UniProtKB/TrEMBL annotation:
Coiled-coil residues: none
Taxonomic superkingdom: Archaea
PANTHER family per the UniProt record, alphabetical: 6-HYDROXYMETHYL-7,8-DIHYDROPTERIN PYROPHOSPHOKINASE
InterPro entries on file: HMPDK_MptE, MptE-like
Family membership: Belongs to the archaeal 6-HMPDK family.
Species assigned in the record: Haloarcula rubra
Keywords in alphabetical order: ATP-binding, Folate biosynthesis, Kinase, Magnesium, Nucleotide-binding, Transferase
Molecular function GO labels: 2-amino-4-hydroxy-6-hydroxymethyldihydropteridine diphosphokinase activity; ATP binding; kinase activity; magnesium ion binding
Purpose: Catalyzes the transfer of diphosphate from ATP to 6-hydroxymethyl-7,8-dihydropterin (6-HMD), leading to 6-hydroxymethyl-7,8-dihydropterin diphosphate (6-HMDP).
Protein name: 6-hydroxymethyl-7,8-dihydropterin pyrophosphokinase
Gene expressing this chain: mptE
Taxonomic path: Archaea, Methanobacteriati, Methanobacteriota, Stenosarchaea group, Halobacteria
Amino acid sequence: MEFDTWEPVYTAILDDFGYGRGGDERARDRLGATLAESETYRPSRLGLESATVAIVGAGPSLESEADRAAEADAVLAASTAADRLRDVGVAVDCMVTDLDKNPETARELTESGTPVLVHAHGDNVPAVETYVPTYDAAFVVPTTQAAPTDTVHNFGGFTDGDRAAFFADHFGAEALRFVGWNFDDPDVGPEKRRKLAWAERLLHWLESRRGDRFDVLDGRRDGIDPVERSL
Ligand SMILES: Nc1ncnc2c1ncn2[C@@H]1O[C@H](COP(=O)(O)OP(=O)(O)OP(=O)(O)O)[C@@H](O)[C@H]1O
Ligand SMILES: Nc1nc2c(c(=O)[nH]1)N=C(CO)CN2
C-alpha cells in the first residue's frame, strides 16, 4: 500500500486514539537515525510473491491452530506470537513488532538471520533507542505509520498483526491465512480491545481491496464498521 492510500485511514486512527502525528514522525526519524550507518534488510528477499503466507496473531487460539501456520509457504509472527510459535516448533520467517513486549526475541531473531519489522511510533521511542542498537541491522526492516522516508517504510496497517498482513499484501502474497486471531478475546483490556477493533476493520478493508475473503472475518462482516466510513 502506498502512503497516499493509507494516509486518510491513518488520520482517522490518530483522531480516534488521540495520538499526535508529530510524535510518530519524531519516532520514525529516531529509528532512521539509529540505523543510518547500516544497510537494512530488503523485504523482497523474503520471497512473499505468489506465496501463501500465515499471519500469526497472539490470540489464545494460536497453539491449537499452529499446524495451519506450519503448512504455509511463509510464517509472519506478530509480537509474542513469535515466542509461542517457537515453543510449539513452528519456524518463523519474519517477526513484526513495535517492541512493546518481547524485544529480546526480536534481537535473537535478527542475530540468527530472521528479519524483524521494527515499528516506531510516538509511544515507543525509548524502546527504539534501547533495543534497536542491539539488533543485527542487516535483518531489521524499519517501519513507520507516518509518511515513509528513504529508509523507514510504511506498508500500511496499525497493530502488529494487521501490519503483517499489509506487509504480505504489499510484497505480492497470493493468499493470507490467519492463525491465532481472536477478536472477541475476553481477556484483553479496553485499550487492546479498541486496537483489535481497528485491526479487524483494517483487515476488512484489505480483503476488499484485494478482492479477497479472509476466513478470519467469516460471520463477522455484518458487524464491522467499514473503514471507508471514517474517511
Ligand atoms: N486476542 C488477541 N490478543 C492479542 N493480539 C491479538 C489477538 N488477536 C489477534 N491479535 C493480533 O496479534 C498481535 C500481537 O499481539 P501481542 O499481544 O503479542 O502484541 P502487542 O505488542 O500488544 O501488539 P500491538 O502492539 O500491535 O497492540 C496484535 O497486534 C494483534 O494484531
Ligand atoms: N502513537 C502510537 N501508535 C501506535 C500505538 C500506540 O500505542 N501509540 N500502538 C500500536 C499498536 O499497539 C501501533 N501504533
